[in-house]
Write a structure and sequence with these properties.
4-stranded antiparallel β-sheet, acyltransferase, GNAT_dom, alpha+beta, Aminopeptidase, globular, acyltransferase activity, transferring groups other than amino-acyl groups
């Protein structure tokens, strides 16, 4: 499959990031979020947001092919998605460790993220990675012209004192 490389995203990665994001988002969120959010998440919206958020994105590639990414928003791990071919391979864990390191290196006490309540697969993944579920909250997902409230769980990751080897 090739050696795993984690690197900052560049302009040539936009299409791969948008595709992985669109496909992964549909898999994780359809049936778990309000219809208003589903309606706002058009293919064009993923293309545009991938382009706009490139500077906050780290991609994972295997053999030169982008198979996943993580996006940060200050101390929030805002998005982490993998191509179906990379699920269960350790790529997600590697991206999460990189995100943890970037958040703490930027001076934040530790990372956090929101997971839709119905996305049990993601919740299990973060728990296996040592993240703590602090419970449910109303997350305001941005959409053109405002936001949509999504029932989520807030997970917190390790702070600087918990830094992991290999991150």
């Amino acid at each position: 499959m090739g050696q795993l490389e984690l690197r900052p995203a560049g302009p040539t990665d936009v299409d791969a990031v948008a595709r992985i994001w669109r496909d992964g988002w549909a898999h994780a969120h359809l049936g778990n979020v309000p219809d208003a959010l589903v309606d706002a998440r058009t293919p064009e919206s993923f293309d545009q947001r991938a382009r706009e958020r490139l500077g906050n994105t780290t991609v994972a590639s295997l053999g030169g092919t982008v198979v996943g990414f993580v996006m940060l928003d200050r101390d929030q791990v805002d998005h982490l998605y993998l191509d179906l071919s990379a699920r269960g391979s350790g790529v997600g864990a590697a991206l999460l460790r990189r995100a943890e390191r970037l958040v703490t290196a930027a001076g934040h006490p530790g990372p956090w993220l929101a997971v839709a309540t119905g996305n049990t697969g993601a919740r299990r993944f973060y728990e296996r990675q040592g993240w703590v579920d602090e419970g449910r909250f109303d997350h305001e997902a941005p959409v053109p012209g405002g936001s949509v409230v999504v029932d989520c769980h807030r997970f917190v990751g390790p702070g600087p004192e918990d830094a992991r080897v290999g991150a």
